[in-house]
Amino acid sequence: MLINFFMALRNARIPVSITELLHLLQVLKKGLVYADVDEFYYLSRMAMVKDERHYDKFDRAFSEYFKGLEDLSSMIASMIPDEYLRREFEKSLTPEELAKIKSLGGLEKLIEEFKRQVEDAAKGEGKEKDKEGKGENGRGEEGNDRKGKKKRGKRRWDKRDYKAYDDNVELGTRGMKISLRRLRKLARTGADEEFDIDNTIKKTARNGGLLDIIMRPERRNTVKVLLLLDSGGSMDAHVKVCEELFSAARSEFKHLETYYFHNFIYEGVWKAHNRRMNERIDTWDLLHKYTHDYKVIFVGDASMAPYEITHSGGSVEHWNEEAGALWMQRVLDTFDKTIWINPTPLDTWEYSSSVALTKKLVEEQMYPLTIRGIEDGMNYLSK
């Protein structure tokens, strides 16, 4: 059965291999799914389809292959001969049980009586529902019509729920990785060519030992990122999404340096929260340590009193000798590209004077923490 199902998926141009089929067989042997076609659908899709792009093809192939079968038990029953099942059943009975069945008229008569009782019970249940004027049609996917026939709603693989794509949905770690990868790909540089030893060996072997040197473009990921994260205060509401961004950035960028600040950039930043008061790093050191080609990404909600940005002594934690706006200008003057990613909803920015001021200071390069926002920010940094 599964071989034919496997071939049906191959015919539907879904890239499945024997490995996926063996994985599915192993799970089925464990008894994770039995006699439930809905559960088998999800299990087989998980085991056989490794790319979400092929889900629609899988749904169509699954629907076509299992068309008309309500569950796996009916599928199995349609494939196994009745005589075989009867013999297997009799083998499981003791001599006493066999003698009792024979005294009652034999196995055939018992089966017929059982079928008749089941049909009578089903008819009685259908009549009661018709009298009450109720059923399950109005409440779920299944129900009985007036003729007592069971009707089913569309199965999961027959449904098509269409909706417009939203490029303003908040990102999970996987979505962030995909968006951040745009910057990494666009920033790859390297020498024109390098020696391709693997393809050289293959080509030489095909040529009967005649050496054929193969060259390939050398590509190195040289993008360097300086990530500055706002922490504490109003940012506590955005801890989860900032952790996801931090995790995604760690996995995507080989050259990544991370520092923390509170509300706005001043004369000091820190690496560890538990040592932020006695092991602060001078912001001047950052400006002198990292080269101008580092891409600077600020992450924060920019929610504060405007004087915290524009005035000396505006910081709520310490006395800052120079205004935060001055330090931001120094960052912009030192590095080629700087952006600010704001986790608060875009439609709330206009109601905050500090957000508007911060956006102006970073030369309008403030982006929301959404799919579209991350991609726009990475496009700007990669230019």
What would the keywords be for this entry?
alpha/beta; elongated; five-stranded parallel sheet; 3 domains; 47% helix; 383 residues; Rossmann fold
Provide a concise account of the structure shown.
This protein is of the alpha/beta class. 47% of the residues lie in helices and 12% in strands. Strands 8-7-11-12-13 form a five-stranded parallel β-sheet, with helices on one face. A two-stranded antiparallel sheet has the order 1-2.
Structure, described:
With 383 residues, the protein is α/β, with parallel strands linked by helices. The chain folds into 3 domains: 2-79, no CATH class; 82-152, no CATH class; 173-187 and 222-382, Rossmann fold (3-Layer(aba) Sandwich), CATH 3.40.50. The chain has helices at residues 2-11, 18-29, 37-48, 55-65, 72-79, 82-91, 95-103, 107-132, 173-186, 197-206, 239-252, 283-289, 307-310, 324-334, 353-361, 371-382, and strands at residues 142-144, 150-152, 188-189, 194-195, 215-216, 220-221, 224-230, 255-261, 268-269, 281-282, 295-299, 337-342, 366-368. The strands form 5 sheets. Strands 8-7-11-12-13 form a 5-stranded parallel sheet, covered by helices on one side. Strands 1-2 form a two-stranded antiparallel ribbon. α2 (18-29) packs antiparallel against α3, α9 (173-186) runs parallel beside α11 (239-252) and α9 packs parallel to α16. The longest helix has 26 residues, at 107-132. The relative contact order is 0.07.
